[in-house]
Amino acid sequence: MWKQSLSIFFTILFTITSLAHGQRAVFNLQQSNLNDEIVLLQGEWQFEYGELLSAEEMRELKSPVYIEIPKTWTGIEYKGEELPSTGYATYYAQIIVDKSISNLALNGKVQSTNYKLFVNGKELGEVGKLGTSDETAEPDYQNKIFSLPVDDTLDIVFQISNFHYRKGGMSRPPELAEKELLIEDRGQNISLSFFLIGSIFFMGLYHLGSNFFRTRNRMNTYFALVCLFTILRALSVNEYLLIDYLNFPWWLSTRIELISFYLIFAFTIRFIYYLFPEYIPKFFASIPYYIGISATVITLFTPILYNSNLVPIMQLVTVITGIAILYFIFRASLKGNKEVIIALIGFLLLFAVTVIEILIHQSHIVGEMVFALGIFFYLFSHVIILANRQNQTYIKNQDLSLALQQSNQRLERTVEERTKELNERNKELVQNNEELKKIHDEKNGLIHVLAHDLKSPLNNNKGLIQLVRMPENLTEDQKDYLNKLEKSNQQGIQLIEDLLQLYRMESQQKAEIEAIDVGSYFDELIQKHEDTAKLKSIKIETKIEPTKKAFYTDPDKLQRIMDNLISNALKFSYEESTIYLKIKHEGHQLHIEVKDEGMGILKEEQPKIFQKFQKMSNKPTAGESTSGLGLSIVKTLVEQLEGTIEFESAPRKGTSFKVSLEDLKSDH
């Protein structure tokens, strides 16, 4: 099977069954079996530039010029001058055939860029529109088959003009054979073209689709792009299917032909780089890529007559780049990597068919279907590499999946064991919580009972002390003892009051919201502390910013906050000092500041001043009692009123407490 495939490849590669080399524009084909073989009219043809002549006029020329076909007239020396790419000319050859061969035909092939065909003085047809200027000439590419008259001598004249491409003239030798054979040969070429196009299409589609359903991979994207533009180039070059089947105009088909060449080059470089990034330098993958993109942009926006001159430059760049890539891949293949060896074989094939394609384009050799067939095998080699990588990835995924499954099983066992432990601990926590709740309830009940039972005898003691004081014959020592007893009794009563207040506060946290008039509320509250302040000659300066707007809060809790803060300020202030109160109702907040000039709080004790039963090193200045609960109560009440409290203090400079409370109105 592979031998047959190889035979087909080389047959298509050169598409040559027989060559007829004419002598001085005469091709003697009497010995050729034109019923079974196609003859290429490759050899010397008579040539006359700047004239559109008949066969008879060509024969009558006194100084005939002969040119080897296939060859364009661009750049050749003609009568002492170098010919330009544009212009028009006549090609003439005489063909001698066996008259017994019926239904003889000629495939005029694609000439640059239009022509008229005459045989034995009769016009057989035209491809494009022959003209003597760019206004009258119309380019077209078409492999057109013409039926020839029955005669043993055929005078063939090609009148060719070109005003739209960088090369003009007979770039391909015509084909001569029995008509059905030519049609069959063209049909085989078209069938093979569609087979290659379909195969390359599905290669590209698969790798493009893999980017949608798997992790996106630039290598797959560039491979799909190479396939896409290979298809476009095959459609624009192989039998010129875009023109014949899709009726594309010449200028569009030719632009696609050129652009697809540049982009195949650019995307192939990128694909090879992402296939073997460890072997191909990054800068090398970038420079040729941008050269190809630049050539594409120029071709899109400039006339074909001018931008087609980029072709030989890009052909040279392609060859140089190909040699460099061959070097990098060959050097990497020495390490024995199978993928690199397959890539080397594929790229060698691609490089070979690229060189052949360039030679065909330069009219140095004759061939058909070369590039499409070569790049098909090149792309197929990379399909093998990518399939191998995907297979290796699949195997690794299977191994990872198995390892993950085993790990999950171990994890499930561990989770099950830990869950069992947690359930047991949760049961213990539930039991402990129930016990703690029971203890807490007992504690609260005990506090309530103790406070109530202790408060009654202390109040009785207070009354008894007053009775003992009533006689006027008490000595000074007795009076002093009674004062100390009364003070101690009062401290006990205050401690019990604080405990009861803390108990009520913790058990009833919901605020009883009422509207207060800020000015009158604080005036009345501060007056209650004036007498205590006078005992120590302390002045209370109050600054209440006037406001007509009511403030919504819990008046009782606010009163407790202020009583504790002012009482603390009085206890820890020196005699004849000043306490400053600032109250400001601003927006939806009430700002309160209580500042004294007392002894302050030591820095190391400041973090714990809001904790319960915390007594500081500094004592009240007049020996007043303190329970250590006041500031703890203040902080709790402030938080219940959705507020904040902060303080600043320095030893012997005093302390400032700042409270900010939110307006608790329901529509706030």
UniProtKB/TrEMBL annotation:
<dbReference type="InterPro" id="IPR004358">
    <property type="entry name" value="Sig_transdc_His_kin-like_C"/>
</dbReference>
<dbReference type="Pfam" id="PF00512">
    <property type="entry name" value="HisKA"/>
</dbReference>
<keyword id="KW-0902">Two-component regulatory system</keyword>
<keyword id="KW-0597">Phosphoprotein</keyword>
<keyword id="KW-0418">Kinase</keyword>
<dbReference type="InterPro" id="IPR003594">
    <property type="entry name" value="HATPase_dom"/>
</dbReference>
<dbReference type="InterPro" id="IPR050736">
    <property type="entry name" value="Sensor_HK_Regulatory"/>
</dbReference>
<protein>
    <recommendedName>
        <fullName>histidine kinase</fullName>
        <ecNumber>2.7.13.3</ecNumber>
    </recommendedName>
</protein>
<feature type="coiled-coil region">
    <location>
        <begin position="397"/>
        <end position="442"/>
    </location>
</feature>
<keyword id="KW-0067">ATP-binding</keyword>
<keyword id="KW-1133">Transmembrane helix</keyword>
<dbReference type="InterPro" id="IPR011623">
    <property type="entry name" value="7TMR_DISM_rcpt_extracell_dom1"/>
</dbReference>
<dbReference type="InterPro" id="IPR036097">
    <property type="entry name" value="HisK_dim/P_sf"/>
</dbReference>
<keyword id="KW-0547">Nucleotide-binding</keyword>
<feature type="transmembrane region" description="Helical">
    <location>
        <begin position="258"/>
        <end position="276"/>
    </location>
</feature>
<feature type="transmembrane region" description="Helical">
    <location>
        <begin position="288"/>
        <end position="306"/>
    </location>
</feature>
<feature type="transmembrane region" description="Helical">
    <location>
        <begin position="221"/>
        <end position="238"/>
    </location>
</feature>
<keyword id="KW-0812">Transmembrane</keyword>
<dbReference type="GO" id="GO:0000155">
    <property type="term" value="F:phosphorelay sensor kinase activity"/>
</dbReference>
<dbReference type="GO" id="GO:0005524">
    <property type="term" value="F:ATP binding"/>
</dbReference>
<feature type="transmembrane region" description="Helical">
    <location>
        <begin position="190"/>
        <end position="209"/>
    </location>
</feature>
<feature type="transmembrane region" description="Helical">
    <location>
        <begin position="312"/>
        <end position="330"/>
    </location>
</feature>
<feature type="domain" description="Histidine kinase">
    <location>
        <begin position="449"/>
        <end position="665"/>
    </location>
</feature>
<dbReference type="InterPro" id="IPR003661">
    <property type="entry name" value="HisK_dim/P_dom"/>
</dbReference>
<dbReference type="Pfam" id="PF02518">
    <property type="entry name" value="HATPase_c"/>
</dbReference>
<keyword id="KW-1003">Cell membrane</keyword>
<dbReference type="InterPro" id="IPR008979">
    <property type="entry name" value="Galactose-bd-like_sf"/>
</dbReference>
<feature type="transmembrane region" description="Helical">
    <location>
        <begin position="342"/>
        <end position="360"/>
    </location>
</feature>
<keyword id="KW-0175">Coiled coil</keyword>
<dbReference type="InterPro" id="IPR005467">
    <property type="entry name" value="His_kinase_dom"/>
</dbReference>
<keyword id="KW-0472">Membrane</keyword>
<keyword id="KW-0808">Transferase</keyword>
<dbReference type="InterPro" id="IPR036890">
    <property type="entry name" value="HATPase_C_sf"/>
</dbReference>
<dbReference type="Pfam" id="PF07695">
    <property type="entry name" value="7TMR-DISM_7TM"/>
</dbReference>
<dbReference type="GO" id="GO:0005886">
    <property type="term" value="C:plasma membrane"/>
</dbReference>
<feature type="transmembrane region" description="Helical">
    <location>
        <begin position="366"/>
        <end position="387"/>
    </location>
</feature>
